[in-house]
TrEMBL record:
Record-given protein name: Uncharacterized protein
Region annotation (Disordered) ranges: 42-71
Segments of skewed composition (Low complexity): 52-63
Organism: Amycolatopsis vastitatis
Length: 172
């Protein structure tokens, strides 16, 4: 093989290896985050949130379990509070929607919130579903943002001994 072909093959191999490492890092630490520990606390950002309660039932403080309806109930309540923040255009600040985000997902959540612009009226639809998508919980949402009708979901990360935190908002 000529030196020029060897050099081209080397560069192709290096680029392929770099792309592979990037894919593993993104899928491992961002979405779906299978490298992340699921038993750590959500940190001070979610704990210091001063979002008004919707008056819903007390959330379960037990470890994550598929058979625990308290986790689904807690995810629904956190989603309602998150949507209240969005509807009030309270994105930033200690009581804003970003403060309800999971540790490490600030940039991901912040990017998805760019699709939300006043006037916003998002809610969990009457026929909306709250479902487990291992290792996360998804809650259906629908409504109007930026003067257009949208549907989508809020993806939450369940935490042991804490309320779920918001990982991402998807509207289309």
């Amino acid at each position: 093989m000529s030196p020029r072909r060897r050099r081209t093959a080397l560069w192709v191999s290096l680029v392929a290896a770099g792309v592979s490492v990037a894919v593993v890092l993104v899928t491992g630490f961002v979405v779906p985050g299978f490298f992340l520990r699921h038993d750590r606390s959500p940190g001070t950002a979610a704990a210091s949130s001063q979002v008004p309660s919707t008056g819903g039932p007390t959330t379960s403080r037990t470890p994550f379990s598929r058979s625990d309806p308290g986790q689904l109930q807690a995810a629904r309540q956190v989603t309602e509070e998150f949507l209240c923040c969005l509807n009030a255009n309270a994105i930033d600040g200690p009581g804003g929607a970003k403060a309800m985000g999971c540790p490490g997902s600030e940039s991901l959540l912040g990017g998805t919130l760019l699709a939300v612009a006043p006037p916003t009226q998002l809610a969990i639809p009457t026929q909306g579903e709250v479902r487990f998508r291992d290792p996360v919980i998804e809650v259906d949402v629908a409504g109007v943002t930026n003067q257009r009708a949208v549907t989508g979901y809020v993806r939450l990360q369940p935490w042991q001994d804490h309320q779920p935190c918001v990982r991402i908002l998807v509207v289309r």
